[in-house]
Structures are given as C-alpha cells and as structure tokens.
Amino acid sequence: MIIPENELKDFLDSKVLQYNTVDFIEPDPISVPHRYAVKEDIEIAGFLASTIAWGNRKMITKNGHRMMDLLGNSPYDFVMSHHEDQLEQLQGFVHRTFNASDFSYFIKALQHIYTHHGGLERIFTTHQTDDSLQPAIEQLHQLFFEIPHQVRTRKHLANPAKGSVAKRINMCLRWFVRNDNTGVDLGIWKGIHPSKLSCPLDVHSGNVARKLGLLSRKQNDGKALLELDTSLRILDKNDPVKYDFALFGLGIFEGF
C-alpha cells in the first residue's frame, strides 16, 4: 500500500497522535524507567529494560520490572555500591538468551561507565556527530567491554560498526532524548537534539516502512536504517523519530 506522498505525512502524523499518548506507557518497556524520578535511576532502568526488548512485549515489560525488583528498586545505587556477593541475587534471571551472568556483567560495566567515563549521557553527548548518534553507540560498545567479560555477553549490546541497526539502544535513546510534552518519552538528556535520533528498526517497523514506501532495502541493516532515517527526516527534520509510534502502532496493533 503506497500512500501518495502528499498524503503520507498527514497519515503518519495522525498515527503519531493516536499512539503517542500516556496509554502507551503501561504495557510497554518504557514503563520501567517511568518508575523513577532521579535521572540516573531512569538511565539505568531504561538501559537495562531496552537491553532485553526483543520477543513478546508483555514478557519484556514484565522482566524489565523484575530486573528493577532484583536491584532493590534503586538501580543506580545498586550499580554504584553493589558488592560481588550481591550479584548472586540476580541468579535465576533470564530473558530469552540474556541470563543472570549477562545481567551481572551489565551491572559491572555500568559501574565502570559511571565511574570512569562520566555516565551514559556524557558518552553520547561527547561522541554525537552533526547528524547521528550511531558513532556514539559504537563508542559505548567499546567502553562497555573494556573490563573482563564473557564473549557471549557482547551480543547483547549492538555495534553499528558491525552493520547492526541497534534497534534496542536507538529505542532507549528515543526515551532519553525526546520530550514532546505528551508524557511518554522522558526527555532527560538536554544536550542532544531529537533530529539526530535514529528509528528503532525491527521486523515490524521495517515491514510497515516498506509498505509505505519509506524503505526500499529488503534487509534490516545499517544501510536500511540510514535510508529510513533519511525518509523520516524529510517528513520532520526536527523530530523524525516520533514516527516510530506510527510504524509501531500500524504494525503491532493494526496488522498493517
């Protein structure tokens, strides 16, 4: 279904208005960082919840909240002050291929990031380019695995340098950067403009984008992400990733 170009923006804008509402929050993984008011708690909660954001949406959200419960509902404090024996309480956690050993490493790596690199926001603010955050994701990947780790855990943090669309971290960045006063995205990072965000591209959003003529590349890879970003920035150069709500809603709720 190709919608005429002169009608496409109005159609997608209407879908953004339909889905970008507070009703979106509760059944979505974004409800996990919404539990908190302190910036660092929001960052840790959002980063961890987005890390496991693949598979069934209900299960993702449930396990994201379980992560916070295991961290004593004080994620930043746990990350910064935990002792090795406290990581044992994470045993038994599993979401698909992300298990307790991965969870434990992510806690250690986040402590390393906040202790030695100024935190997540500083990495992205420092390494953003004029039109992209993908190089900053590459930098995060490098810094995140500076300390000893199992090779298997590396697959749980995407690296655009390897051609990844980095769907989960791009979703997390949408949460942290966008703030359009609807109450959904959290907008806690002020030093990055929403125009630099990339769409969280996955099977569903990719299929919808192709049906709408926003994406022609058949495989979901870095080149497809660039093509989709370019299309969405033509529709709205200042806030292109608001259309994630439209693509998601059309794919998941409307079977478009």
In a nutshell, what does this entry contain?
With 256 residues, the protein is mainly α.
Would you write up a description of this structure?
Helix content is 51%, strand content 2%. Strand 1 (94-95) and strand 2 form a beta hairpin. The chain is built from eleven helices and two strands. The protein is mainly alpha-helical. The N and C termini lie close together (9 Å). The mean pLDDT is 96.
- Overall mean pLDDT score? 96
What class, by secondary structure content?
mainly alpha
Q: Percent range for helical residues?
A: 40-55%
Shape: globular
| SSE sequence, one letter per element | HHHHEEHHHHHHH
What is the β-strand count?
2
Q: Which radius of gyration do the C-alpha atoms yield?
A: 18 Å
How far apart the termini lie comes to 9 Å
- Strand arrangement within the widest β-sheet reads 1-2
Number of helical stretches of at least 4 residues = 11
- Give the uncertain stretches in residue-range form: none
Strand residue percentage: under 5%
**Largest β-sheet summary:** 2 strands, antiparallel
